[in-house]
Design goal:
10 helices, elongated
Length: 355
């Protein structure tokens, strides 16, 4: 990872360096998780500065970088950049606070700070294309997520609450190899399922409810993301029609995704099915997003994205229909883009299940 960034920075000229402060990007390039640290990189050198809480662990575990104990951080950054011959510093413009920027300006008298998105674009391009090792970590996280779905089917019954379903999913994933939750688990039912990012409540499950569960876990720092919607007791004709439409949209997208396709056209594969069925106004979000060391990352299957898919991209495919006051349905898998199509790495059943 680090060598690829060094090459991109070298292409910017020998006097260009980058400062990386976000936990996700620090971990991506050093393979070392921490809540604090500063990573300085140019075409030849990478220096990771961290405080006394992490120094020993970083010295033992951080990859492809020098590890330095943090002292007076901003003068220290200035000194290292001077050693690097840096005249132009690239920063994570989408992640850096005004406070950090002002502190840097106070010490970097001979270095300009580029506040454009050049570094963000470099990092996005690197992180979006997964290595075989990264894909294996995501598959391992998804395996736990799939197993959690099998488990929860035996737990759901009338009378249990949305909150209890969410907690049961969390407990299963964390007790079966997940190192963290990908995000706060969504488990919503009945009318609540019309809210795509609804919060689990004390509402009890009733016969005739749809239950939408969106959840995932983390393995080796990499996330999984999956959604399934099931019915309890029975599903009426409208519920079945909506579910069938969402499933058809998802299958159409999975069948059409491939290298060379734009994200806009990937989104359209699912959106057209839903629009043709008359539910277009109820599909209120993009079809999918990248997943990796963060749960939402580049690229996005969105009507506004002209990014072209390439082998190694991993995206979610999660069309949905949400009818306010009634119910919602979302079905989500993760797909690895290949030369001739995509590999669906989510293996839970998705034909309508009525418990």
């Amino acid at each position: 990872m680090m060598n690829n960034l060094k090459k991109l920075l070298a292409d910017q000229g020998e006097h260009t360096a980058a400062l990386i402060i976000s936990p996700e990007n620090r971990r991506y390039f050093t393979s070392f998780p921490s809540s604090d640290g500063y990573l300085l990189v140019n075409g030849e050198r990478a220096v990771f500065i961290t405080d006394g809480r992490y120094i020993e662990a970083a010295e033992n575990s951080a990859k492809d970088c020098e590890v330095v104990l943090q002292e007076r951080i901003y003068p220290q950054i200035g000194q290292i950049l001077e050693e690097m011959g840096c005249q132009n510093l690239l920063v994570e413009s989408s992640r850096m606070t005004v406070s950090v920027y002002n502190s840097l300006k106070g010490v970097l008298k001979k270095t300009s700070i580029s506040t454009d998105d050049a570094l963000d674009k470099m990092i996005n391009s690197l992180r979006s294309v997964k290595t075989a090792e990264e894909i294996e970590s995501i598959k391992a996280a998804q395996k736990i997520t799939d197993d959690a779905f099998t488990h929860i089917l035996g737990f759901i019954k009338p009378g249990v609450t949305e909150r209890e379903i969410g907690l049961e999913l969390d407990s299963y994933m964390l007790s079966h190899g997940g190192e963290a939750l990908s995000f706060e688990t969504i488990a919503v039912s009945g009318k609540n399922s019309s809210m795509p990012h609804g919060v689990p409540s004390d509402k009890k499950i009733e016969n005739g409810d749809f239950i939408t569960m969106d959840y995932g876990t983390v393995v080796n720092g990499y996330h999984s993301d999956m959604t399934r919607t099931v019915a309890v007791g029975y599903a009426d004709d409208e519920m079945k029609k909506v579910y069938k439409t969402v499933l058809a949209a998802q299958k159409a997208c999975l069948e059409g995704l491939k290298s060379g396709l734009s994200c806009r056209d990937g989104d359209a594969l699912a959106r057209k099915v839903i629009e043709d069925a008359g539910y277009g106004k109820y599909f209120t979000h993009s079809t999918g997003h990248g997943v990796g060391v963060e749960i939402h990352e580049f690229p996005n299957l969105s009507p506004s994205s002209d990014t072209v898919l390439t082998p190694g991209h991993i995206v979610t495919v999660e069309p949905g229909i949400y009818i306010p006051g009634k119910f919602g349905v979302r079905i989500e898998d993760m797909a690895v883009i290949t030369e001739n199509g995509c590999e669906d790495i989510t293996h839970s059943p998705k034909e309508l299940i009525i418990l």
